[in-house]
Design brief:
22% of the residues lie in helices and 39% in strands. By secondary structure, the chain is of the alpha+beta class. It folds into 2 domains: 38 residues, no CATH class; 125 residues, no CATH class.
Amino acid sequence: MLAISTRLSGGAGQTAGLRKALSLAMALAVAGLSGWAVEGPLAPGWARRAGTPPPLSGSLAVASPASNSADNPATVIAPGVIQDALSGSYVRLISGETRLLLTDLRDPSIQLIVRSAGTGDPGPVLAVVHNGRVGCIAPVVALGLSLSATCGKTTLLIQVSPQGKGSSIAGTLLIQPA
């Protein structure tokens, strides 16, 4: 910025006024951007206010397991491990494919979709969806009534149990560093 200011401030004649105005405009822009950054992305809690799911932002605050609000942080059961309750069902598509659809009860904008292996897939696949946007797609390892998948540097362990005679499922999501 100093180099640009020096370059703009030098000069005389017809462009001197324009150069000074550009220097002032640049200084105001930098001051405004700095003020926004201090109150925005550099301020504590920015990721939560911006809508980033706690598992992705690394939030480790503790909440009551009965908490059901997106404004409340996830439950921490061990250092670096986050636990959320899930609810969902098995859905059979017209194509015959079966999908497991799960919703995070603490933050319903987070959904987990497990689809059976398609042609050429090595096995089932997990899609993590937040506010309608796919955040991760990863192969799933089935371990009985548990599923495991790794999204980047995060391991997701989904434990499910059928509810009643229908297709309803209850479950738990454990999120931990990979």
